[in-house]
């Protein structure tokens, strides 16, 4: 995991993440499964120019889905919730 661009896959844009952003100044990201908390902190700080206070991660297991007669499994995801310093924020949709 040498490159910072490979750590963060995409931001989490959900209702639950929006509530956490408003209440606790906490933002959610889908990250690479092999990335650790230090790499996530460095990636967010360098990409968005903010100061990160804490990083919480969880791995969501894949679900078993039935497609016709076959059974398939979705891939697992690693989510990271990043808490920022007071007065800082991240603009996901600039200029929209």
Automatic annotation (TrEMBL):
Keywords: Ribonucleoprotein, Ribosomal protein, RNA-binding, rRNA-binding. GO terms for cellular component: ribonucleoprotein complex; ribosome. One of its GO terms (biological process) is translation. GO terms for molecular function: rRNA binding; structural constituent of ribosome. Gene3D superfamilies: 3.30.70.330. The keyword rRNA-binding applies. Transmembrane segments: none annotated. The keyword Ribosomal protein applies. One of the early assembly proteins it binds 23S rRNA. One of the proteins that surrounds the polypeptide exit tunnel on the outside of the ribosome. Forms the main docking site for trigger factor binding to the ribosome. Part of the 50S ribosomal subunit. Contacts protein L29, and trigger factor when it is bound to the ribosome. Belongs to the universal ribosomal protein uL23 family. This is Large ribosomal subunit protein uL23. It comes from Halobacteriovorax marinus (strain ATCC BAA-682 / DSM 15412 / SJ). The lineage of its organism: Bacteria, Pseudomonadati, Bdellovibrionota, Bacteriovoracia, Bacteriovoracales.
């Amino acid at each position: 995991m040498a490159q910072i661009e490979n750590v963060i896959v995409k931001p989490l844009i959900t209702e639950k993440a929006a509530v956490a952003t408003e209440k606790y100044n906490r933002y959610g990201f889908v990250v690479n499964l092999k990335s650790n908390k230090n790499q996530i902190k460095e990636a967010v700080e360098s990409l968005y120019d903010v100061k990160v206070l804490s990083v919480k991660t969880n791995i969501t297991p894949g679900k078993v889905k039935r497609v016709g007669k076959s059974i398939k499994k979705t891939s697992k995801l690693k989510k990271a919730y990043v808490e920022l310093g007071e007065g800082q924020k991240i603009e996901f949709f600039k200029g929209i």
